[in-house]
Amino acid sequence: MNRVLIDLKASFKMFFRSKAAVFWTLAFPCILILLFGAIFSEMDSKYSLYVQDLDQTPSSIGFIEALNLTNAFNLHILEDPAINATEYALDKELSYILVIPEGFENDLGTANATIKFIYDQSQTSASVVMGILNSVINEMNKILSDGVDFIRVQDETIAPKRFSFMDFFLPGMIAMSAMTTSIFSAVEISSRYRESGIFRKLATTPLRRIEWILSRTIYLIVVSFIGMAVILGLGIAFFDVKIIPDPMSLVLVATTSMLFSGIGMILSRFVKDPETAGAAANAITFPMMFLSGSFFPLEQMPEFLRSIATVLPLTYVNNGLRDTMIMGEPHRAIMNTIIVVVLGVICLLVGAWITKWEED
Amino acid sequence: MLLGRNDVAIEVDSLVKKYGDLTAVDSISFTINKGEIFSFLGPNGAGKTTTVEVLECLRKPTSGHAFVLGFGISKDQDEIKKRIGVLPQEFNTFDSLTVRENLQYFAGMFGSSVDVDGLIKLVDLEDKRNEQYKKLSGGLKQRLGVAMALVNDPEIVFLDEPTGGLDPKARHEVWNVIRGLKKRGKTVFLTTHYMEEAEVLSDTVTIIHKGKIVATGTPEELITRHGQRNLLILKNTDKAAVPLVETLGLEANFDSGAGDVKVTLNHSSDLSEIVRALTLKQIAFGEMQLKRSSLEDVFLNLTGETLREAETL
């Protein structure tokens, strides 16, 4: 055990002294999170809606106030009544302008009021914005006509709270980080130590192969936990994510690390030079990143890609982590966890068995 | 299994190692006494490293027996590993650990409480103790490699091509370290393809060629037995010296181009006889050069090839 601790201590020293290892393990996922966060957190924000109120009456002002109360819009009021709204939208490249015409309040009295909605039809969110507008108008119509709700919708979300894109994205990043850290480290270390003769030197000492593999496995699990902590810390600090890791998520990350370090050992046994082994690891991890639902929900993918996802181990890691970290329901993650644990143990044992220091 | 005499460090008997159809080591036998520097000399591909790696328990022999400090290489690997130190061919260690950290790491693997700073001093790396391995020059790396082979205070130190790729200055530095090991009572198993290295360092030299041992002995014995005779060159000498030298029973000839007389010596005492005869006959001669026979000549005589030719085959 003492030899395992000595090797672990040396491994961490080498890790923190290697700028490349620290960058790819800790900094790169952070850059990805900030990048994706900047792009996709827009999905959670309000829509910019320009409003030109040509009526300037209590009714038109009340309507604008009702829009504001939906919390769905950032409203920008066009003060100058002489502005042509359509030309203004083209000129300023705006997506949506709402024009409340002069006489709006009077027309309400005759139940003949209209508002004009000018929008860019190429915007995918146009239908969403129009839907919100219609909801506000319907509600106002109902109040003005003393209408009664015969049917009401009772809202109930699947998840116990409202989740943002980042809440979905962060578990995927944790899984991806554990995968890449483990597989690339295993491939790089195994093939480089073999090529440079360090394995040969280690083989002349009493250090047993199984002790070295145990040390490497513990090391990669701890590095994966560090990566997980950094990713969650970043999510909490910058994106207000609400997820907290529980024991099940730690088990999933640890076994993910075992699974992919085992795959890395297997790869480096058959592909011996470090460059080719690295390329082989890329060939495995790159499709898995995109097809296993790390970045985008599987539901958005075509049917045939979803079929592929079912045979990718990272899919079960992603699903398990989301069940336990987002949904807050670890019991739902049990099956995914069992699959990952079984695969992890098998791959690690096979990797350990075929990794050799000495040649026959 | 413990076997053999107390003064024997290594015994090898009919050792064979095959890789598929290729026989890398072909039934070799030799014995190494404790405390000596033993050189295994041969061209690249002769079977040196394979033999050493079998003795270090890194490879399994195809057949034959070998005992290291009385322990069998097939059954007592743990006992052997505790008692030997190894500098592998093209030695490498952890790039981003310092000299001191690398030594501490390997000492820890043996559970050894060796004086790491003493080892650093032994190989003269005191100024570099906190330098990372990757920043050391080739010679310094090899010296660290030798120090790392000593972390468990081994009885036998295997040094596989310890000066390969080093410049002459660095090579001499490593030689001094190896001489220091002998003074500390270590048995040194040195594999090399440098003839001069084997000649100046070794107590015993064994020449291996194409997997077979072709000769064993001290460097002097091998040169005497298998080398050419020493050649004396008398620069700018009258050709009248030739018949005079021949009267002493020696072969001599005149190189008219250079104006030199060349004499093949039978014994070291021939030199003084020649000088006396030339002086008596008042035959003037210029500078004298003595070209000694070397292990290179031994290798040429035994194999019919120069070492360089053998390596390119």
Question: How is this structure best described in words?
Answer:
The complex is a heterodimer of chains A (360) and B (313). Chain A has 360 residues and is an alpha/beta fold. Chain A folds into two domains: 2-40 and 162-354, no CATH class; 47-144, abc type-2 transporter like fold (3-Layer(aba) Sandwich), CATH 3.40.1710.10. Chain A has helices spanning 2-17, 19-40, 58-69, 85-92, 104-109, 126-144, 165-196, 198-203, 209-239, 247-270, 274-291, 303-309, 313-325, 334-354; strands at 47-53, 73-78, 96-100, 116-119. Chain B has 313 residues and is α/β, with parallel strands linked by helices. Chain B has two domains: 8-225, P-loop containing nucleotide triphosphate hydrolases (Rossmann fold, 3-Layer(aba) Sandwich); 229-291, 2-Layer Sandwich (Alpha-Beta Plaits). Chain B is built from twelve helices and 14 strands. In chain B, α5 (138-148) packs parallel to α6 and α8 (219-226) crosses α11. The interface between A and B is medium-sized, with 23 and 30 residues.
